TrEMBL record:
<dbReference type="InterPro" id="IPR036188">
    <property type="entry name" value="FAD/NAD-bd_sf"/>
</dbReference>
<dbReference type="Pfam" id="PF07992">
    <property type="entry name" value="Pyr_redox_2"/>
</dbReference>
<dbReference type="InterPro" id="IPR007419">
    <property type="entry name" value="BFD-like_2Fe2S-bd_dom"/>
</dbReference>
<protein>
    <submittedName>
        <fullName>NAD(P)/FAD-dependent oxidoreductase</fullName>
    </submittedName>
</protein>
<dbReference type="InterPro" id="IPR017224">
    <property type="entry name" value="Opine_Oxase_asu/HCN_bsu"/>
</dbReference>
<dbReference type="InterPro" id="IPR051691">
    <property type="entry name" value="Metab_Enz_Cyan_OpOx_G3PDH"/>
</dbReference>
<dbReference type="InterPro" id="IPR023753">
    <property type="entry name" value="FAD/NAD-binding_dom"/>
</dbReference>
<feature type="domain" description="FAD/NAD(P)-binding">
    <location>
        <begin position="6"/>
        <end position="335"/>
    </location>
</feature>
<dbReference type="InterPro" id="IPR041854">
    <property type="entry name" value="BFD-like_2Fe2S-bd_dom_sf"/>
</dbReference>
<dbReference type="Pfam" id="PF04324">
    <property type="entry name" value="Fer2_BFD"/>
</dbReference>
<feature type="domain" description="BFD-like [2Fe-2S]-binding">
    <location>
        <begin position="394"/>
        <end position="442"/>
    </location>
</feature>
<keyword id="KW-0560">Oxidoreductase</keyword>
């Protein structure tokens, strides 16, 4: 692209791809940067190009028609010199100066070498998605214990099954596609432990009835699990993992309505891999340092506040997809389209408004958000989950901080949020910067507010070489 960009999009998942395609169709010049090697995000994760033909994953995907349409729109945009697509570019910092955004990224296309890249545009759209939310339990740091998103990423991104006999646990509908995908690849999924009870959905009939495609999808997964003989256990949790060098068994227990293990219900199940997931936490790293207002979502997360056109509270900054609340790919797609329509409407030459089409996208967003809220309420974190922890259970794996140390920081030293616990214990100060332990430490600090991740000025580790490179280009 020879001319300056009108819009910079960070994140090429469903939200970022849809936003880019809409912006291109509206005549904008766009830069689209993503830390992954190919566009698609978590939902449309594929093996790297050279390996795609050898690793068929088509049966694990949904909505591939939409993916192909978006991919074609992006490649037409590139051919016409309107799109600067930047795969393997991890954005580590964003600043706003003089009504424009400066984005610092590291180009990792030739990893392990990396070089610094600086991109600028008057408008920025952040669509960086979410990551697995984890709750610790004794043994969760053993090799072979993964997140369910990690299991899914291995499967979709490399055709790899992490084990031959796998137990899954946590809460939320995402357990189902992961179990079905593993079973379809010949893995013995010995049990799926869902902490909530599916009947909790009946308290939200409106969103259920307005989204028949969702329950049809759920029914398909249910049938797939039945076909493979996978046992689905409601109101049950994986409360421990055991093994010496790696996991060899898990302890599962029935839960009381409050989430405490029911005495006498615990039993051991032999496995060689485990996947656990407690929903997702939005990836807000690039948004919080820019000063965006946040809102509490029903699932215990803080999410970025947007208006009905996906505008954040910072002028020129838009957000779409799971940074605005966890709700699945169809919601992310609709929010991406809506955000790009707002960028076009707010620009110097707004297009003729297409009121009906925009109203339809807004209605789609509202319908999916109502479903997402119902999902969050039907699959809460079990209030009594800290009862699974012993004082020796490691909570922050990077800094090896135990539950006992976190509890002491709260009870004896008066810490009442994860930032204070971090200052007192180093929990959240390591390599992952609290992405893994942050939500758990937040719950242990017994706060009733939504989890707001600590502000990180650098969103990914950057080598000194790349920083020096940046300095040399000034
Ligand atoms: C590990 C994992 C696996 C999942 N698998 C499925 C699944 O199989 N089926 C399903 O229905 N839902 C799945 N989900 C939920 C899924 O994320 C959403 O429904 C959907 O993909 C959300 O779209 P999005 O565009 O908001 O975000 P995403 O699809 O997550 O896309 C965000 C993109 O932003 C990029 N990014 C993030 N930070 C940066 C940065 N600093 N610099 C540059 N790029 C960045 C990421 O590489 C990613 O490509 C998964 C979620 C996770 C976390």
């Amino acid at each position: 692209m020879t001319e300056p960009a009108d819009l910079l999009v960070v994140g090429a998942g469903p939200a970022g791809m849809a936003a880019t395609a809409t912006a291109l169709a509206g005549g904008l010049r766009v830069v689209l940067a993503d830390s992954g090697t190919t566009a698609g995000g978590q939902y449309w994760r594929h093996p790297p190009e050279p390996a795609r033909a050898a690793i068929p994953t088509g049966d694990l995907h949904h909505g591939l028609g939409a993916y192909r349409t978006l991919t074609e729109a992006l490649s037409t945009g590139r051919d016409r010199g309107r799109l600067d697509l930047r795969p393997a570019h991890h954005v580590w910092s964003v600043t706003r100066e003089d009504d424009a955004f400066t984005v610092h990224a590291v180009d990792r296309r030739h990893a392990p070498e990396e070089s610094a890249v600086t991109l600028r545009a008057p408008r920025l759209l952040v669509a960086t998605g979410a990551y697995d939310r984890q709750l610790p339990f004794p043994g969760w740091d053993l090799p072979g214990v993964l997140t369910i998103g990690g299991l899914q990423a291995l499967l979709k991104g490399g055709g790899v099954t992490a084990g031959r006999r796998v137990a899954l646990g946590g809460t939320g509908p995402f357990l189902l596609p992961v179990a079905a995908g593993l079973a379809a690849r010949g893995v013995e999924v010995v049990v799926v432990c869902e902490a909530a009870h599916p009947l909790a959905w009946l308290r939200h009939p409106g969103p259920l009835l307005r989204n028949p495609a969702k329950w049809a999808e759920g029914a398909r997964y249910g049938a797939a699990l039945a076909r493979h003989g996978v046992r689905f256990r409601p109101r049950t949790a994986i409360v421990g993992a055991e093994g010496t060098d790696r996991v060899t068994s898990v302890r599962i227990a029935s839960l009381t309505p409050g989430g405490a293990p029911r005495p006498g219900t615990g039993r051991r199940v032999d496995v060689d891999a485990v996947g656990v997931g407690w929903g997702f936490a939005p990836q807000l790293d690039l948004l919080t340092p820019l000063g965006c207002a946040l809102t509490d979502a029903a699932d215990g997360n803080a999410v970025v506040t947007v208006d009905d056109g996906q505008r954040t509270t910072v002028p020129g900054l838009y957000a779409a997809g799971e940074v605005c609340g966890v709700g699945g790919a169809p919601l992310a797609l609709a929010e991406g389209r809506l955000a790009a329509a707002s960028v076009l409407a707010d620009g110097p030459a707004p297009p003729v408004p297409r009121g009906r089409r925009l109203a339809a996208v807004r209605a789609t967003v509202a319908r999916h958000r109502a479903f997402a809220r119902a999902m969050a309420l039907a699959h809460p974190l079990p209030a009594a989950w800290p009862a699974w922890l012993t004082d020796e259970t490691v909570v922050c794996r990077c800094e090896e901080v135990t539950a006992g140390a976190v509890r002491a920081a709260c009870a004896e030293d008066g810490a009442h949020d994860h930032r204070q616990v971090k200052q007192l214990t180093r929990a959240g100060m390591g390599w992952c910067q609290g992405r893994v332990c942050g939500p758990a430490v937040h719950c242990l600090a017994a706060t009733d507010r939504a989890y707001e991740p600590a502000e990180r000025l650098i969103a990914t580790p950057v080598t000194l070489g790349a920083l020096a490179d940046l300095d040399a280009r000034r």
